[in-house]
Each structure stands twice: as structure tokens, then as C-alpha cells.
């Protein structure tokens, strides 16, 4: 843990006229952590990133880096570096000159800044291309140059605004490994804005899920994926089916709810719930099995197969269950092909009651989840 690069955000809001882009956000990012902020377009994640960088000033609240209030500090004096989404490389400068540019602005001597630039290029494995200009590089190489340029000032915090969005899938996966390696070597705080769920889960120590200017959940990737706080997080992060039911009975350690089709579901204790209350819960897609059995059973849902996608390591089967969104099962490949389904087939999805997860937060999003 690096206390010098710890970030404390307290009651931070940002207003653009009547629009509240960020709404009274509280967040702590431990020093040396890799934090991914994720959410749909317009959720406030980039605005929050830019306020940490100093490119936007909060309308209210405070931002501390390493315990120092930097809410209104100059961009260059707060110990942050921002890597832009479009890389913003100078087309007429070679790689060494691009990387060294911020040191030139600070008045560092030609020899010293050239040595440091070449050292950074070596760190990102591009020293052999030091004399080339950006137009002679691939997208992935340009991204690494931009990364070297951001890191040359030895920032406490590196801020990345969707750094992998312009890359193809192969390069994106490769650069994910590079980013994690660099962050581990440098030991500084990385804050990475993304709209891609697998990217956030693969990279982050802390995932911050935003919606409509607020943080819906901030936790480890495993916690966010397996124990989403709200229906919105469950839908947006993927991997979960969201269901709703009315409480039928409440017993010690056990709550029974009835879903829209009359099926009973066994949930853990729902704090404060009483018969008639509405409860949201979810079940992971990979915990679901399908059968042709028409008999109604607990912890199940009937539907019609509307789509089948082979995903290599699993088969994705989508069902129309009469709800506004499809119910999805991720089936083991061997098991699926031993008994293939067809579009139009009537099936029943069922799962063990222990996989029912209560969603405590409200469903505050009208947006459509993005799947990558």
C-alpha cells in the first residue's frame, strides 16, 4: 500500500447547468491499487476521472491525493498523469521526442530528457523504434508510446481514459497484460475508465460501477461479479439473471418468494421483509441447467429458446420467459452437445437454491446493459 498515492473523494459533485454529471460521490482508492471505473456512456465516470486529473473542477466536495487537498490545485502540481483515449501524439516528433516532451516543457536538459525517454521506451518494449514517428507504428505501439509519455514524470497516480477501446481484440488482450505488469512494477495507483466488463474484471483490484452520476457499487471484481448490490449492477456486469418475486413467507434463515409465473424460490433471509413485499434476486448464468421437464419445480423458470451461441468454452442459450429481458444459461459444451437444444424448443431452466442472491439496491437504471 502506498499512502502517497491514496485517493479520497468526499461528497464530490459536478454540475453542467441543470445537469448533475456527478452526484455527491464518496470513494476511497487505496494507494498502489488498480481501480477500474465502469458504466454506460453518460454515467459520470470520465467526468470523475477528469476531476481527479485537474482538467475539471468539482462544483462541490473535496479530492485528496496522499492526504493533500488537490481539489483546486493545478493539473501539473497534483502528481497525476492522464493518458488520453486518442493518445494525442505529436505526428512530427519521433518517439523519443514525444515521450520527452513534458520534460522539455519543465526545462529538463536535452541529454537528461532523452535518456529518461529512452529508459521509458525500453520499459514499454519500444526502444528499438525510438527514432520512428507515430504514423509508422501500429495502434498498440502508439498506445505504449502514450503510456511511456504519461509515466515519464513519475506520477503518483496514472489516469487512463478508455485506453484500449481503439484496439482490436487480440491487441486489447495483450495490452491488458502489459498494463497490469507495469502497474505492478511501478507500484502506483492506476485509475482506468472503461465500458468493457471483462476488462474491468481482469485488471482491477477495485471495480467502481457508476450510473447516473452515482456509484452503485465499489468492491473487488469477485465481489461485484458474484454479489452484485443491485439489479443494475447484476445486469450491467453480466453473468447474472435478474428475477423479481413477492414474499410468501419468512422463516428463520429462509425467505420464500413467488415469481411472476407462480414458481416458488428459496432465498436467504431478507432483512426486514414481510409477506407481500417485492424482492429482487439474481442467479448466475453458469449455475443454470436446462431440461425438457414441463413440471413446475422450485427455483426454476419456464421459457422458449430464442437464441443459441457457441462461445468455445460454453454454449449461451437465451430464453423468452415472458419477462422484458431474456433469461440466459451458460451450458457446459460437452453437456450441451450431448443433448442439443433448438430455437423454439420449450424448456425449463433450474438451479440449486444456494445460488439465489438477494439484490439489496434499487433498480435505478433504465439503460440497456452493454455486453462485450
Structure description:
The two termini are 32 Å apart. The protein has 2 domains: 3-226, 3-Layer(aba) Sandwich (Rossmann fold), CATH 3.40.50.300; 239-359, Beta Barrel (OB fold (Dihydrolipoamide Acetyltransferase, E2P)), CATH 2.40.50. The model is unreliable at 364-372 (pLDDT under 50). Helix 5 (169-186) links the parallel strand 7 and strand 8. The protein has helices at residues 45-53, 95-105, 110-123, 139-151, 169-186, 197-203, 221-226, 231-237, 333-338; strands at 7-16, 19-29, 34-38, 60-65, 68-69, 80-83, 157-161, 189-194, 206-211, 214-219, 240-251, 254-259, 264-267, 278-284, 289-291, 300-310, 314-320, 327-332, 346-350, 357-359. The protein has 372 residues and is α+β, with helices and mostly antiparallel strands. The chain is elongated. The protein has a 6-stranded mixed sheet with strand order 6-7-8-3-9-10, sandwiched between helices. Strands 13-12-11-14-20 form a 5-stranded antiparallel sheet.
Amino acid at each position: 500500500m502506498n499512502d502517497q498515492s491514496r485517493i479520497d473523494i468526499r461528497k464530490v459533485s459536478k454540475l453542467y447547468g441543470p445537469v448533475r454529471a456527478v452526484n455527491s460521490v464518496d470513494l476511497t482508492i487505496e494507494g498502489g491499487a488498480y481501480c477500474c471505473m465502469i458504466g454506460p456512456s453518460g454515467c459520470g465516470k470520465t467526468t470523475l476521472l477528469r476531476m481527479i486529473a485537474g482538467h475539471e473542477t468539482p462544483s462541490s466536495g473535496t479530492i485528496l491525493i496522499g492526504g493533500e487537498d488537490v481539489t483546486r490545485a493545478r493539473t501539473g502540481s497534483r502528481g497525476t498523469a492522464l493518458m488520453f483515449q486518442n493518445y494525442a501524439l505529436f505526428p512530427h516528433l519521433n518517439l523519443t521526442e514525444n515521450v520527452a516532451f513534458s520534460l522539455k516543457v519543465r526545462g529538463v536538459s536535452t541529454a537528461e530528457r532523452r535518456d529518461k525517454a529512452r529508459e521509458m521506451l525500453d520499459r514499454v518494449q519500444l526502444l528499438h523504434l525510438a527514432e520512428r514517428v507515430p504514423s509508422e507504428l501500429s495502434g498498440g505501439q502508439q498506445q505504449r508510446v502514450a503510456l511511456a509519455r504519461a509515466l515519464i514524470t513519475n506520477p503518483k497516480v496514472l489516469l487512463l481514459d478508455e485506453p484500449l477501446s481503439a484496439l482490436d481484440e487480440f491487441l486489447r488482450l495483450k495490452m491488458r497484460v502489459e498494463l497490469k505488469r507495469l502497474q505492478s512494477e511501478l507500484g502506483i495507483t492506476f485509475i482506468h475508465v472503461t465500458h468493457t466488463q471483462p476488462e474491468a474484471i481482469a485488471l482491477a483490484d477495485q471495480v467502481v460501477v457508476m450510473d447516473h452520476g452515482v456509484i452503485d457499487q465499489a468492491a473487488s471484481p469477485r465481489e461485484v461479479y458474484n454479489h452484485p448490490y443491485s439489479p443494475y449492477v447484476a445486469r450491467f456486469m453480466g453473468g447474472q439473471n435478474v428475477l423479481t418475486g413477492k414474499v410468501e413467507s419468512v422463516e428463520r434463515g429462509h425467505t420464500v418468494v413467488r415469481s411472476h409465473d407462480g414458481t416458488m424460490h428459496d432465498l436467504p433471509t431478507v432483512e426486514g421483509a414481510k409477506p407481500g413485499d417485492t424482492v429482487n434476486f439474481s442467479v448466475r448464468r453458469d449455475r443454470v441447467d436446462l431440461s425438457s421437464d414441463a413440471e413446475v419445480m422450485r427455483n426454476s423458470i419456464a421459457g422458449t429458446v430464442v437464441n443459441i451461441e457457441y462461445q468455445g468454452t460454453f454454449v449461451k442459450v437465451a430464453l423468452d420467459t415472458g419477462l422484458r429481458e431474456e433469461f440466459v444459461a451458460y451450458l457446459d459444451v460437452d453437456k450441451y452437445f450431448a443433448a442439443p437444444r433448438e430455437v423454439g424448443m420449450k424448456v425449463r431452466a433450474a438451479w440449486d437454491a444456494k445460488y439465489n442472491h438477494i439484490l439489496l439496491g434499487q433498480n435505478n437504471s433504465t439503460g440497456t446493459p452493454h455486453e462485450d
